[in-house]
UniProtKB/TrEMBL annotation:
One of its GO terms (biological process) is xylulose metabolic process. The gene is Der. Belongs to the short-chain dehydrogenases/reductases (SDR) family. SUPFAM superfamilies: NAD(P)-binding Rossmann-fold domains. The keyword Oxidoreductase applies. Coiled coil: none annotated. This is DER reductase. GO terms for molecular function: carbonyl reductase (NADPH) activity; L-xylulose reductase (NADPH) activity. It comes from Rynchops niger (Black skimmer). It comes from the Eukaryota.
Amino acid sequence: QCPGIEPLCLDLADWDATEAAVGAAGPFELLVNNAAVAVLQPFLEVTRAALQRSLDVNFGAVLHVSQIVARQMIAQGVPGAIVNVSSQASQRALRDHAVYCSTKSALDMLSKVMAMELGPHKIRVNTVNPTVVMTDMGRINWSDPQKSAAMINRIPLGKFAEVDDVVNSILFLLSDKSAMTTGSSLMVDGGFLVS
């Protein structure tokens, strides 16, 4: 949909490959960190491999890619905006989500520290925290009414998010319309967290 965007396909857990690819792709003014994994396991069954993979992608990759991009923004002397895609799961415990909830909570705090440290360079950092989003994967995992009912019943708006709900929130946080917003989390959860 955007012909000026060139995708880079790489393993974000590989810091050297990421540094080379992202470092050569600039200059940047905007960044959206959206890569994530969700390896769902009961707390007592969490494996080291699941923990490490989740930390590498959900937290470490955001930290590293943001470092690369923010350094370029600072070197160019231009203002910028970074949006990290978090989750409602950063704020509410969910069964079998011990690692996912924890990495998303860590991402929220990382975003606040980034906002504090990058603010003097005119770089804003925020998160969007969606509920279940009806991507292709979301439809596969949450189309069963019996599985989805418990979650939807806790959402005052009575539905899951569509991709455009998240995209529009990201676009707002990247735009000048949110010029005084940094260090914030925008909940895109239909009210899940207030129920």
